[in-house]
UniProtKB/TrEMBL annotation:
InterPro entries: DUF4153. It comes from the Bacteria. Keywords: Membrane, Transmembrane, Transmembrane helix. It holds the Pfam family DUF4153. It comes from Sphingopyxis terrae subsp. ummariensis. The keyword Transmembrane applies. This is DUF4153 domain-containing protein. The chain crosses the membrane at residues 50-67, 79-97, 104-123, 135-152, 178-202, 222-240, 252-276, 288-309, 321-345, 357-376, 396-418.
Length: 610
């Protein structure tokens, strides 16, 4: 409540100064000693660190409440979506909030929180038993990160809310917001790490004198999320109130990065010139993803080039060598992007479309667009290429936000596109049933892939129908294995229900669902039969094929079964290897065995020796 009242007082103060609905102009009253704002139009707010710390700590507690569950079970979709809303909305509001137009910041944060929550909701139900953190999620997150400095700049200079005039914003302020957000975010994350280390140190100090309160708090996940939120929010608040100092740090980071520009420029030029003699064939034989390497090199080239050219002409690198290196880095982005695009093209021709390759091609096209803009600015502007490049980068950033946001929404179904292409390859004989990626159809292509499997299961082609039925019955993609011609019988055994592979003893006992789940989590009995022997109502032994390996499962106070590695999971000396017939037919006994072992002070030492 204290934090909220402080926020209300600050907003009223800002309204008295006329700061919430007008263009950024004029100078705020003298700031307190602790406030060093970069923009004089931003009023000081000494309570900001405390308000932000309280806000983020509350968000951390809410986030934990959303994700707190039995980690052996999948998290509900609605809880995933709600947790994403809390995290994204809080993060965006914390980084982008100013007293000026605070309602703009709140609306912007809530909007992106809702969008990302919907993306996670759709992603969690798209693939069978899949994580929501798929490509659409990362695309939406990219849109958030790029949109935040665009919003901050528009908030600072706009006389009204006409956000469709984004391209008219001053580039120097936009560039400054982007770098400042990155520096503040990185520094705040580092502060979170230091806060945890300090808390652990304090907890251990008090533990020495018998006070374990802090140690017990650290064992609770809720406290960890609250501590992380409070540390992050407090750090952001402190740095925002000193953003003039942050701007100096940002400029220092840019200077340090710009020094690396000639090194990378020389390496990339030598690399591209070498390809003239060697050709592209060595790239395909390297064993690495050529497209990923080229895209990473292009991204570093853009980063270092922007560090060298700065926010405007007055901030461009004074060293002639650095300026030439920046021009070279901008120019080489296009050939790197073209190589990445061609690599993706060859991959698609060889193996067909998948959602990952569709995303990769889109990323390569974006890189090509930047490369064309960069090369044009270098050819047209020469020494003053950066004057032409900056407005082009601003337009590209706006386009990237719109494209990434559009692709993150469930409008274009990449899984359906990939399903049609892969089925066409199967139908025309480009790939046989033994080489076809059935796991991708079952787990990567969404509802379209599962529907295609249901159709293929009714195919008159027995090989295809059998493989499709096996894929539909699999609970995870790892049971199906890679598309490498794995024997159908082996795959069929893997996806067989566990109850059909386990011999339960003594007679009259059964395999209960809780124990079955624990065995599946440990991936025992997946490739061969095994024996489950009930030692008591609280403990069972699972005997696997091979050198008599035993896994001991025990039930805890909450009723959850988990392995006790101190009692099992090790071969006994002198035991012979067990065969499949032993596990299926051989008699099993529970015997009391005498053993000889050394004891020191009443405690057993070493293993038994007879």
């Amino acid at each position: 409540m204290g934090a909220l009242s402080g926020l209300r007082r600050a907003i009223k103060q800002a309204q008295m100064w006329g700061m919430t609905d007008s263009i950024a102009s004029g100078t705020a009253p003298d700031s307190p000693v602790l406030s060093t704002r970069l923009d004089d139009s931003d009023p000081p707010w000494p309570q900001r660190p405390w308000v932000m710390a309280a806000l983020c700590a509350t968000a951390g507690l809410l986030f934990h409440a959303c994700i707190d569950h039995d980690y052996g079970d999948p998290l509900d979709r609605w809880r995933m979506a709600l947790a994403t809303f809390v995290a994204v909305a809080t993060l965006v509001f914390t980084l982008g909030m100013e007293i000026r137009r605070v309602h703009w910041a709140a609306g912007f944060a809530l909007l992106w929180g809702v969008i990302m929550a919907l993306i996670v909701w759709n992603g969690a139900g798209y693939n069978f038993d899949a994580s929501p953190f798929e490509w659409p999620f990362w695309s939406g997150l990219l849109a958030v990160l790029v949109a935040t400095p665009l919003f901050q700049t528009r908030r600072d200079v706009a006389p009204d809310g006409r956000f469709w005039k984004l391209w008219q914003m001053p580039y120097d302020r936009l560039h400054s917001h982007a770098w400042t957000d990155a520096v503040i975010g990185a520094a705040s994350l580092a502060f979170v790490g230091l806060s945890f280390l300090l808390t652990v140190l304090i907890g251990e100090m008090f533990h020495l004198i018998g006070i374990d309160l802090i140690r017990e708090l650290l064992r609770g996940e809720w406290f960890g999320w609250m501590l992380a939120g409070a540390a992050f929010g407090g750090a952001v608040g402190l740095l925002r109130e000193r953003d003039k100092l942050v701007a100096t740090l940002q400029r220092l980071v840019m200077i340090v990065l710009s020094v690396l520009a000639p090194v990378l420029a020389a390496a990339l030029l030598i690399f591209l010139l070498s390809l003239v003699g060697t050709g592209l064939q060595p790239l395909w034989r390297s064993g690495f993803s050529t497209a990923a390497l080229m895209m990473a090199a292009a991204a570093f080239a853009v980063l270092l080039a922007n560090a060298a050219i700065g926010n405007g002409r007055d901030e461009r690198a004074g060293n002639r060598l650095l300026h030439i290196a920046a021009a070279a880095l901008v120019a080489v982005v296009l050939p790197l992007a073209v190589i990445a695009f061609y690599s993706m093209h060859l991959r698609v021709l060889q193996y067909g479309w998948t959602p990952e390759r569709l995303w990769g091609v889109i990323a390569a096209v974006i890189a090509v667009a930047y490369g064309v803009s960069g090369l044009w600015s270098v050819v047209r502007g020469r020494h003053d290429f950066d004057d032409l490049l900056r407005p082009l980068q601003q337009k590209l950033a706006i386009g990237l936000v719109l494209l990434a946001g559009f692709l993150a929404l469930p409008i274009v179904d990449f899984g359906a596109i990939a399903t049609r292409d892969q089925l066409a390859r199967l139908e025309n004989g480009k790939v046989g049933a033994d080489k076809f990626d059935w796991a991708a159809l079952a787990f990567d292509f969404g509802p379209s892939g599962r529907q295609a499997l249901a159709r293929l299961a009714k195919s008159p082609d027995k090989a295809r129908a059998n493989r499709a039925k096996i894929a539909m019955s699999a609970k995870n993609r790892w049971d199906l294995g890679p598309a490498d011609g794995r024997d159908a019988a082996e795959v069929a055994y893997r996806v067989m229900p566990l109850a059909d592979k386990v011999r339960v003893l003594p007679a009259g006992r059964t395999l209960i669902p809780e124990v079955e789940k624990a065995i599946e989590e440990q991936q025992w009995c997946r490739d061969a039969p095994c024996i489950l022997y009930w030692l008591s109502d609280q403990r069972v032994a699972v005997i696997g094929r091979g050198q008599a390996r035993v896994m001991m499962l025990e039930r805890d106070a909450k009723g959850r079964w988990s392995p006790n590695y101190a009692l099992g999971d090790s071969p006994s000396r002198g035991d012979t290897a067990l065969t499949v017939d032993d596990l299926v037919k051989a008699p099993v006994e529970l015997r009391t065995v005498q053993r000889r072992q050394l004891f020191v002070g009443g405690k057993a030492v070493g293993g038994n020796f007879e």
